[in-house]
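thread: overnight batch results

M.L. [08:02]
morning all. the overnight job finished for the chain we discussed friday. pasting input first so we're all looking at the same thing
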Amino acid sequence: MKKIEHLINGKLNSNFVNNTSSVFNPATGEEASQVVLGTEKCVQNAVNSAKNVYSSWSAETPLMRSRKMFKLKEIIESRKNELAELITLEHGKTFDDALGEVGRGLEVVEFACGIPNLLAGNYTSEVGRSIDSWSDNQSLGIVAGITPFNFPVMVPLWMFPIAIACGNCFILKPSERDPSSTLLLAQMVLDAGFPPGVLNVVNGGKEAVDAILKNKDISAVSFVGSTPIAHYIYQEAAKYGKKVQAMGGAKNHMVVMPDADINLVCDSIMGSVFGSAGERCMAVSVVVPVGKETGDAIRTKITPMIENLKIGPGLEKSSEMGPLVTKQHLDKVKNYIDIGIKEGADLVVDGRNFKLQGYENGYYIGGTFFDHVSTDMKIYQEEIFGPVMSMVRSESMVEALEMVNNHEYGNGTAIFTSDGGVARKFANECQIGMVGINVPIPVPMAYHSFGGWKKSIFGGHAVYGMEGVRFYTRLKTVTGRWPVGKSLGAQYTFPNNS
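M.L. [08:03]
and the structure it wrote out:
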């Protein structure tokens, strides 16, 4: 049985391990490997490795760090298929979807290549007589990232490239459900010439997470995952004086106006609801048609599209949707469908009984569609994280906007319309962090920043872009004077330019 180890100080490592966890192939349900689960000692070992290299790494010029980042970009591009295949084998998403994940992560590496410019401070001469002032963005030290199962390559690339380009050392704790692609990514960092210890990977569960949160040498923690865990990460890390950026869950609404292109709407629904089997924090899970005719048109067109969704192993080119990540998650999604039926929602397409010949033990479920869902239902209020579409009908754009704003999550939303004024009003007034206009999954490009509002974020810091640079650095401002002539004597008033 293959064993997945930690990567500490440039070497694979199974020290300080109390237990292992099984990693499965979701397409077949077969156990593929065992991942070692790190302890507090293992985390400390990684921290010690980072401490040994931090002084020399942070003293390296931003230009030299940038050149290594360019090399990492080349290596990832040359081995993207290998990364994508590992993602598919352990997560289950289709190969093309996995390639897209690698590509979006790579964009952040490209952004980090510009670190000499991104770290530039500012200088002002003569802020007072013979006094100059300048500011600088300096590294924090050792920082950590705790990443989710649904994007084992992209989310780590949202974090560590910017962190290490800023001069920090990084401790990465990937999901124990699908760690192999993350570990390969860390090996690529070594191949690009980054010194051992600049990036360490520690596998593990809650023990490893808590060790990261408590460790006095770790200055900041980044997290992407569910809202309850994001809140826990935020509280615990802040308690120990760390900077925190913690991205939580979502319940993303797509508002569809009567003047929207229904063909575009339904194509967008299929990709955003059922892509990656709905295991995306930016997936559309609630469609809100405005007006009965709009809702009926969507229902008529989307129903056969969902029924004919091509479901199969992610490595088969014909597959449009792969399996869910684990048996436990499959059972959870099916349970939500059961709840929706009990709550009185209209189950138009039921995916619970989907079976794939030859893959009966895989974690498959068909696309599911509920109509006439109401806002008091559990399937509306909670994040299902699976291929389940809920349609909540509304009578007006005002009612739809109110629905979006009243939900406790504020990650992403979208509006489909041909009216620029309506789109502008919606974008300005919705209480959501990321908004799409005729775009179903409005994930910002790398030079912007990713982050929701309300219970979708804790800590106030968005991910990557300039928000990422600000998170992984701290501002230092220096005010200096080189005396010229005689001293003016002691001054007892607060300095000013009067």
